Amino acid sequence: MARTCLLVWSCCLILASPNVVHVLSTVVPGVGVNWGTMAFHPLPPDIVVNMLKDNGITKVKLFDSDSPTLKALSGTGIEVMIGIPNNQLYILADGIEDAKDWVKENVTAHLHDGGVDIKYVAVGNEPFLSSYNNTFDNITFPALQNVQKALDKAGVGDKIKATIPINADVYESPSNKPSDGNFRKDVKDVMVQIVKFLQQNKAPFVVNIYPFLSLYQNADFPFEYAFFDGSGKTISDKNVSYTNVFDANYDTLVWTLKKNNAEDLKIVVGEVGWPTDGNINANNNLAKKFYDGLLKKLAAKKGTPLRPGQLDVYLFDLIDENQKSIAPGNFERHWGLFRYDGQPKFPIDLSGKGNDKMLIAAKGVQYMRPQWCVLNEENKNLAMIANEIGYACSESDCTSLGYGSACNKMDIDGNVSYAFNMYFQMHNQDEGACDFNGLAMIVKTNASQGSCLFPLQLAGAGERLKLAYGASIIPGLLLAFFTLM
After folding, report:
1. What domains can you pick out in the chain, each with its CATH number?
2. What is the pTM assigned to this prediction?
3. For residues 149 and 155, what is the distance between their CA atoms, to the nearest angstrom?
4. pLDDT confidence of 231, banded at 50, 70, 90?
5. Which residues are part of the catalytic machinery?
């Protein structure tokens, strides 16, 4: 799970240092970004790092420890949280030796002069999600312990801390009031152990908070309460008034920690953001509204009622990721401040001053040939369209065609063309990927319609993970085609 004002070159201060480039940032202090790479053709790391620097972003959170990514971050002075995927927790929980090997390969190998400024190691990602059915409950804490011990043995544990990015569903409040918050009963024991360990090692509690999901998952959720205008519902709790769900959620965690003898534990918001497509409430306008309010709040250092002052926050996400699972919703592939190709989506002022300027786009991006795959108007065999559209969407990404999404207002020809083009582009514009039993044809004119972008594939992607889109057909999409025919 986009944009405005940013660093102009005249505002950058480059200090001559042997290896490190220091950038005078215009980003709100304490604010960083998540950099996920679950895309069929992700942007090259060096291009992304230059984009971070151009926009004054000095903190980044990763979901792995990919060597090319860390190499690109070397010498930049950008503070980094590297990640350990959940599927690696088993081996790290098994013993300290594996953890020591992991730290040697993924941490200390990058700490040379002019290397990477690693501050945190994220052990897993939201491993206690209720949807995981307790899969990682018994291995996450041992993995955390072993990684921190390995950092200590490597002599870097005083500067680099292991922690766990945790979804906000590990705590709950039966009344929806923060003061009634506590850990979920099924994970309470392990969470208390983790909290105590974080305290002992002076590591932060990292929590992911998503006001959008509160709105998405509850049809009765008050719309304005997801934002920061203060114009909607207010919740009163022990003489404290809450005007937005972010503050209420954060302070529910504060109360939870207090009840478990960890009142002073540092909190870092590991993910917070707003998607721009894939749902009726996921669009550029609402994303801008959300980020404008959030960044102004962070710039003012208001904190929350129970934790006033500066908050440490990582915005989610830097770039759209079109290989993410859409099990949570079609919006999952559209959290980026930037499109897949590094183009900013909307104005956002990372300084929190409210200026309407676009972020600086990625430079040096190369695309494949300017050609698109569309419906062949001379061979519109409607009886075959449903099967072909289903196949195209199952092997690509049709999430922008869903109800309320960016491409939802096209006619049936436009919908079919969009699906065909997504398949064509994600298969590297292979001529055989634009056939569909004679229903499709390649054109040289941009097929985009209005706000619906028909993307071009990025060039030079190299070896990629195998597509895993088996569940990506949008519910109701095929029904819509049958209805229109």
Report:
1. 9-333 (3.20.20.80), 372-484 (no CATH)
2. 0.90
3. 10
4. confident
5. 126, 271
